[in-house]
Amino acid sequence: MMIIECINCNKKFEVDPDLVPVKGRTIQCGSCGHKWFHKKDLSEPSSNTDNEINNEEEKQEKTISNDNAEKLSVHKNEEKDLKEASKEDKSANKSNIFNKIISYLIVIIISFVALIIVLDTFKTPLSNIFPNLEIILFNLYETFEDIGLFLKDLIK
């Protein structure tokens, strides 16, 4: 086994020396995805004769070209999947934003109604502190009645 080190992230991998021809080949790091051309060191021992090396290099090049064709088709499929996923993410994002706005609006309305109920419940003691509270609450009730009448007319 020989050890190849990624020139980008310095991660080391054990590789079968027969997989790298004497001419070298492009290698991709399994950790960071960086690609570089790796050439076999001449100082490494070789048990094959020159003919065996040439035959094996041809086999490896054919295997590499087949692998590249498979990787290319897989890569194209991955690109399609990523495009579809990004479209789904965008639509999901839009619906998420809409849902958040609706949620906040509902919380604000409920909080406002709760405040009115509390003010109406404690109207008498609070009118000692805020003398105009009864007038404000009366005007608020009249406004709600006007909005209700407007919506009824709108529906008809």
Work out the number of β strands. 4
Instruction: Give me the strand/helix succession.
Output: EEEEHHH
Low-confidence residue ranges? 44-51
Strand order of the largest sheet: 1-2
Average pLDDT confidence is 77
Overall shape: rod-shaped
Largest sheet: 2 strands, antiparallel
Proportion in helices: 55-70%
Radius of gyration: 37 Å
Structure classification: mainly alpha
The N- to C-terminal Cα distance equals 84 Å
SS field, number of helical segments: 3
Q: Quote the beta fraction.
A: 5-15%
Q: Descriptors for this entry?
A:
156 residues, mainly alpha, two-stranded antiparallel ribbon, two-stranded antiparallel sheet, 3 helices, 10% strand, rod-shaped
What does this protein structure show overall?
- This protein is mostly helical and 156 residues long.
- Among the domains are: 45 residues, no CATH class; 54 residues.
- It is built from three helices and four strands; from the N terminus they run ββββααα.
- The strands form two sheets. It has a two-stranded antiparallel sheet.
- A hairpin with a 6-residue loop joins β3 and β4.
- The longest helix is centred in the middle third of the chain and has 72 residues.
- About 5% of the residues have low confidence.
Task: Annotate the secondary structure layout.
Elements: E1 2-5, E2 12-15, E3 25-28, E4 35-38, H1 50-121, H2 123-129, H3 133-155
Antiparallel strand pairs: 1-2, 3-4
Short description:
The chain is mainly α and 156 residues long. The protein has helices at residues 50-121, 123-129, 133-155; strands at residues 2-5, 12-15, 25-28, 35-38.
